[in-house]
Design goal:
Structural class: alpha/beta
CATH superfamily of the largest domain: NAD(P)-binding Rossmann-like Domain
Number of helices: 22
Distance between the termini: 56 Å
Number of strands: 16
Strand order of the largest sheet: 5-2-1-6-7-8
CATH topology of the largest domain: Rossmann fold
Number of domains: 2
Length: about 500
């Protein structure tokens, strides 16, 4: 069976530079660009830059940028599956080995848009020297270097700036990314004319993205390839539902005519209410539950939702611990909360719990901690399910051994990978060796909660949190996450 590949290059110009080659952007942004090409006069291709030294560039290039997208869900009460080959990606660059080509792309007269998804941990400022001849380390540093190269190439022409549309799930993602770039420009002592060009020629927008993407359907791959009639190592699966909220000027809709393409995209002057609703209910419930479910041997989100204990736990988290912390009308919250539970139960998504576990520390800070803090303010008490989720995180991050850049944990159901930044893994590796192996759960909890680089504050300051997390953690070690989750549900009746 032949590998899916492109016989001839696309004649369309490359108008989009995309930082991130993962499942989400390929099932969301690239799918939308394909719709724009099909239904409007957008006429543009995408070139991807992988943000890390080790990524999917070789796989993507082997298939000429082509891959199959499978969207599944329920429409009008009936199961629906839609398959199509996405053809808008030309190739994927590894900037660590092809930096001059990345610079050439950034300076192209055809280029207009930059999309990114480098996870919540990706948009950060870490001082590093300016190395124009080779790839920078952080994503914002890479983008600063590329934007400065473009500024020089166009001689500061204010008509040739770029529109930067980050999709990372952090608050004010566009504003934060721009601030990081300004910090690098100052650190590297780039000319003031460059920062003026950034302000006047480039547009950074804040966004919210919403689509559950399961990624590569490992268990179904052989069957799907037989049905498709070709090999595809990049098959991507997601739900049919999608929402893209863009906080930017109305004129942006003229350049990105998503509505004409029939897409559920909202242009607004304030995306905050949409973001709070989605991040807390959908992403927060995911992050608050999946680690405990993995530790109990579960594999998929719909499997977790069908489980008597964990399904009830997720519903409890959404309806009781997260619900009161979202400052929106109750009827709007109820409708959205119910829709989230329905989407989680989608049996066609096959969303792997381990894929959600990536970078769980930064995800917990962004997706769960705000709800926990607001609950404490409102109730003068700890939210049981969210507090338990922090204990489950600490148990999940107990490292048995390091395997290259990946840590390995172990539960009674076997080994599992722990994927996070080197700084997070190194910290937990040290904490595991110091406390967890001796079952000193209170000291372990206190040390982990005191890592301000993780949480932005010392969580030991929250009354009762350290003791409660340590209590849950000790019981998880003895009884397992299922038994502790069950006891929490019984106590909350």
């Amino acid at each position: 069976m032949a590998l899916l590949s492109r016989s001839t290059p696309s004649p369309r110009p490359v108008r989009v530079l995309q930082f991130g080659e993962g499942n989400f952007l390929r099932a969301f942004i690239d799918w939308m660009i394909q719709r724009l090409n099909q239904k409007t006069d957008f006429n543009g291709q995408v070139r991807i830059i992988q943000p890390l030294p080790h990524g999917m560039a070789d796989q993507i290039n082997a298939q000429g940028g082509l891959y199959t997208l499978i969207l599944r869900g329920i429409e009008n009460g009936k199961p629906v599956e839609k398959r199509e080959i996405i053809n808008v990606v030309n190739d994927c660059l590894n900037p660590y080995t092809h930096w001059p080509e990345a610079v050439q792309l950034a300076c192209s007269s055809d280029l207009r848009f930059v999309f990114s998804n480098t996870t919540e941990a990706g948009i950060e400022f870490k001082p590093e020297p300016y190395t124009p001849e080779k790839c920078q380390n952080t994503f914002p540093a890479k983008l600063t270097s590329l934007l400065y190269a473009r500024f020089q190439a166009v001689k500061g022409d204010r008509q040739r700036g770029l529109i930067i549309i980050p999709c990372e799930l952090i608050d004010q993602n566009g504003s934060t990314l721009k601030e990081c770039i300004r910090l690098y420009a100052a650190l590297w002592q780039l000319p003031a004319a460059f920062t003026t060009w950034l302000d006047q020629a480039c547009l950074f927008v804040n966004t919210l993205v919403d689509r559950i993407v399961a990624g590569y359907p490992r268990a179904e791959a052989a069957r799907l390839e037989a049905e498709l009639g070709y090999q595809d190592k990049l098959i991507d699966c997601g739900e049919i539902f999608h929402l893209f909220v863009i906080e930017g000027p109305a004129s942006l809709e003229d350049e990105l005519p998503f509505a004409k393409a029939g897409l559920n995209v909202i242009f607004t002057d304030n995306q905050a209410p949409y973001r709070t609703r989605k991040v807390r209910f959908l992403n927060g419930a995911h992050t608050a539950s999946v680690l405990a479910a993995i530790l109990d041997g579960l594999t998929f989100v719909d499997e977790m939702m069908a489980d008597r204990i964990f399904g009830a736990f997720v519903a409890r988290a959404i309806n009781h611990d997260i619900f009161p912390t979202v400052n929106l009308p109750d009827d709007e919250k109820r409708s959205f909360a119910d829709s989230v539970l329905e989407r989680f139960r989608n049996p066609y998504a096959q969303h792997r719990l381990l894929s959600i576990s990536l970078n769980s520390v930064s995800k917990w800070k962004v997706r769960v901690l705000p709800s926990l803090l607001d609950y404490v303010k409102l109730k003068n008490d700890l939210p049981p399910t969210l507090t338990f989720s922090l204990a489950a995180l600490l148990r999940f991050y107990e490292i048995e051994r390091m395997d290259g850049n990946t840590a390995v944990g172990r539960s009674v159901f076997g080994k599992y990978p722990i994927d996070d930044s080197p700084e997070v893994l190194d910290t937990f590796d040290a904490l595991t060796g110091k406390f967890a192996e001796d079952a000193d759960f209170h000291s372990y909890a206190a040390a982990a909660l005191g890592e301000t680089s993780f949480w932005g504050d010392d969580l030991n300051r929250i009354p009762g949190l350290t003791n409660t997390v340590a209590y849950y953690l000790a019981h998880i070690h003895v009884k397992g996450t299922r038994a502790v989750a069950k006891s929490i549900l019984q106590e909350c009746r």
